[in-house]
Amino acid sequence: xxxxxxxxxxxxxxxxxxxxxxxxxxxxxxxxxxxxxxxxxxxxxxxxxxxxxxxxxxxxxxxxxxxxxxxxxxxxxxxxxxxxxxxxxxxxxxxxxxxxxxxxxxxxxxxxxxxxxxxxxxxxxxxxxxxxxxxxxxxxxxxxxxxxxxxxxxxxxxxxxxxxxxxxxxxxxxxxxxxxxxxxxxxxxxxxxxxxxxx
Length: 199
What we know:
Blueprint (H helix, E strand, L loop, with lengths): L4 H10 L3 E5 L2 H11 L4 E4 L3 H6 L1 H5 L4 E4 L6 H9 L2 E4 L3 E3 L4 E5 L3 H7 L4 E7 L3 E2 L2 H19 L5 H5 L15 E5 L7 E7 L6
Parallel strand pairs: 1-10, 2-3, 2-4, 4-7, 5-8, 7-10
Antiparallel strand pairs: 5-6, 6-9
């Protein structure tokens, strides 16, 4: 399904976000490389960024930190403290809200405070009509797939069908964050791509 660009632009700009749209991941990657240069960049745990090759592309003109390559606490701290931060969203509503679920909290922390610029790169598959549906998607579509990707020992990873609200020590759904308006003190831009990206 194609993105409803007019509705997304109207509602997210009304909520204080900058919004851009691209037909392909390649176009979005080129745009991000033009926007982000000569700085430090953090990339959160993000299948979308890996799929797009963002760390490699941005490393040409920036210092890039991502635990997708070096999985240490120090790297996660460097991501959070970078001047620019890139991630995706687990669910996005047409009404203008972003939903993310996190296990350690470093990814959602960087979207709330710290970096001067935050970019959410969002594939068309992440968009739902309402906030409630975006939250449902984050829990029951994105989280099981991410748990499988990370090879976690959880019911959702084993069955791959939905959230079981488990108490597994390997659970990745510990923090639920909804961003209803752009956070004060940072420029937040949503980079929508009219392709399926990530989970």
